Amino acid sequence: MSRSVLVTGGNRGIGLAIARAFADAGDKVAITYRSGDAAELEKAGFLAVKCDITDSEQVEQAYKEIEDKHGPVEVLVANAGVTKDQLLMRMSEEDFTSVLDTNLTGTFRVVKRANRGMLRAKKGRVVLISSVVGLLGSAGQANYAASKAGLVGFARSLARELGSRNLTFNVVAPGFVDTDMTKALTDEQREGIVKQVPLGRYAQPEEIAATVKFLASDDASYITGAVIPVDGGLGMGH
């Protein structure tokens, strides 16, 4: 049965792979994006909605458009995120707060708005995209790691708060993924990263998408409050 699915930050990389996985399964998929051209996304069959998740009014308008065209969101994948890497002594307060405002508070905004329809329907699936960095830590990424670690406490609190209403909240924690962001690294940097990964390679975006799709499926109906690492073993034990 076709569901109304929303993937935030779904215009590239991991988000786009997730959107494609749901679309291939026959779901109606909406994507929010902050910058770029929506034409290609719409050509691929997605409902592309421009939305900056740091703005509550834009989030509200995006949901109204999605609900009008696809119905209330039944599956939400909160994927939108930013980085502003810097060593602590050089990190400005704006570097810190802006990353948290997108990655953590932005997730709060989109989840809270999705819950309106999910509570009415007495069902819903929410998957938050965190990072191995949120569990493992990373020098120069205190802001990013804090925001991604915060998603775990957020999801687990909501799993307890809303489990009785047939809503599930889970977290996927990807490791190093082969995207445009990591392709920009030098060969030496990429080699250094791969040496840390027990499986000895980067993940493909589709491997993250497969785990997200599983958590939103009937097969995962008794899984909530879970943190699923998809990191080639990089963060095991955390």
From TrEMBL:
InterPro entries, alphabetized: 3oxo_ACP_reduc, KR_dom, NAD(P)-bd_dom_sf, Sc_DH/Rdtase_CS, SDR, SDR_fam
Catalytic activity: a (3R)-hydroxyacyl-[ACP] + NADP(+) = a 3-oxoacyl-[ACP] + NADPH + H(+)
The species this protein was found in: Streptomyces antnestii
PANTHER family named in the record: 3-OXOACYL-(ACYL-CARRIER-PROTEIN) REDUCTASE, 3-OXOACYL-[ACYL-CARRIER-PROTEIN] REDUCTASE FABG
Active site per database record: 144 (proton acceptor)
GO biological process, one term: fatty acid biosynthetic process
Protein's UniProt name: 3-oxoacyl-[acyl-carrier-protein] reductase
GO molecular function: 3-oxoacyl-[acyl-carrier-protein] reductase (NADPH) activity; NAD binding
Record-listed E.C. numbers: 1.1.1.100
Pathway this chain belongs to: Lipid metabolism; fatty acid biosynthesis
Keywords: Fatty acid biosynthesis, Fatty acid metabolism, Lipid biosynthesis, Lipid metabolism, NADP, Oxidoreductase
Class of this enzyme: oxidoreductase
Record domain Ketoreductase: where: 3-180
Quaternary structure, from the entry: Homotetramer.
Described purpose of this protein according to its UniProt entry: Catalyzes the NADPH-dependent reduction of beta-ketoacyl-ACP substrates to beta-hydroxyacyl-ACP products, the first reductive step in the elongation cycle of fatty acid biosynthesis.
Family: Belongs to the short-chain dehydrogenases/reductases (SDR) family.
Binding site for NADP(+): 9-12, 79, 144-148
Lineage: Bacteria, Bacillati, Actinomycetota, Actinomycetes, Kitasatosporales
A Pfam match: adh_short_C2
